[in-house]
Amino acid sequence: MDSMQRQSSSPLILWRDGTPDLAALEKTSRPSAPSSRPQPDPAIITSPLSLPRPVLQKDQNTARTIEPVFQNPWLTYEAIIVIFQGQSVFLARHRKNKATLVNIHLLKQQSSSVKPLLEIISQLSHPSFLALVGCYYWEEQVFLVREPVELSVSHVLASRCTITESEVAAIVRPVLEGIQYLRDQGRALAVLSADTMLLTECGGVRIAGAEQSCQIDAAEMDAATMKLFALGEVVERLIMKNPSQYPWSAEVKGLPDELKRCNSPEKLLRNKLFEQSGDKGELKMLVNAANKTAYHNLESFKRT
């Protein structure tokens, strides 16, 4: 099969020189998140495109406000595939520097709301949040250009991979650090789920949606409002993914309940489970394996 064509039961979206037909895109049904249903044999799964990933600059997560560019983003970037993560997300590459891959998130917003949105993103700069590398505004739509991610924790849950204690810790620790950072800013995530916990190719963990976080009074900060309870539910699902006889330690077994009842991310981070989880490379093998065995619900397309 031609590598530039993917077949499915949904209508094909036309791409002209790397520019997606957004009108056709809106008419197509949006795929649901990966499910836990039995997966097809890994040998017949179409793998993600094997393209080089960009090297992120050291200052990419530093606090700086990115100014919007009021022009068509597809003059600069070439769309490759479209992914749905609750909103339209494109994997794209720079037209001149082909090795530079990005994710482009499409939002419908008024032009007056673009700068306030970018200011919030710049103010909430943390290694656990998706890095923003650019922003375009075109035809009443905002295109946020972000660092590329490989998959979500939902894909890990839908894969055939078992997961180790060190991998659980490596996923949870950056999320806790992001929650703690927001708490220090008097804010809390609006949503946290396996879909919004993202993994990069090199094993980094990113939380999506930090810019949608809410201002919240200190008196209202608890396990539910800070989304520690939601994190505990994700950890429960990760634990249940392994065979019932898997030898989890007492720390991992008790982690979901601890997350659900604790009001202090700092206290949780002092758990000895996280003492050795500082190396993001811990998740690199898991990302690679999950990518090969998870069901990737990508929108089909035909490039012309």
UniProtKB/TrEMBL annotation:
Family annotation (SUPFAM superfamilies): Protein kinase-like (PK-like)
InterPro entries: Kinase-like_dom_sf, STE20_Ser/Thr_kinase
Superkingdom classification of source: Eukaryota
Example GO biological process: intracellular signal transduction
Ranges for region Disordered: 24-49
Protein name: Protein kinase domain-containing protein
Species name: Penicillium antarcticum
Taxonomic placement: Eukaryota, Fungi, Dikarya, Ascomycota, Pezizomycotina
